Amino acid sequence: MHKILLFMKRRPDISVEAFRDYYETHHAPLAAKYSRGVTRYIRRYIDAQPHPETGAFTDGPDVITELWFADEKIFRATLAYITTSLMPDIIVEDEKNLFDRASFRIATVVEQETDLG
């Protein structure tokens, strides 16, 4: 599988509960309509925990969204698109209801797994 990770913060004026509810009931269904070739669309909501040495977790994302692709060509085309173009206006306008768009970070991932069994 090929994955694109989106690290995103909520707008500071929106509660965690309202952010998660809006994402699941409004934004995710809208985004799914524009997600051709995506095999899995996962949202991982962050419950920040303090670090034992440095204290509070204050600068991380509120959600890590994963876009999974079985087809490498579609993955590469999607990555090229989202790193060089704005999403359709309807998506951008909906994101403004939810996210601090300036905080968006995009990454791909190479996974390595250790067999613990």
TrEMBL record:
The lineage of its organism: Bacteria, Pseudomonadati, Pseudomonadota, Alphaproteobacteria, Sphingomonadales. Residues 11-101 form the EthD domain. This is Ethyl tert-butyl ether degradation protein EthD. One of its GO terms (molecular function) is oxidoreductase activity. InterPro entries: Dimeric_a/b-barrel, EthD_dom. Signal peptide: none annotated. It comes from the Bacteria. Coiled coil: none annotated.
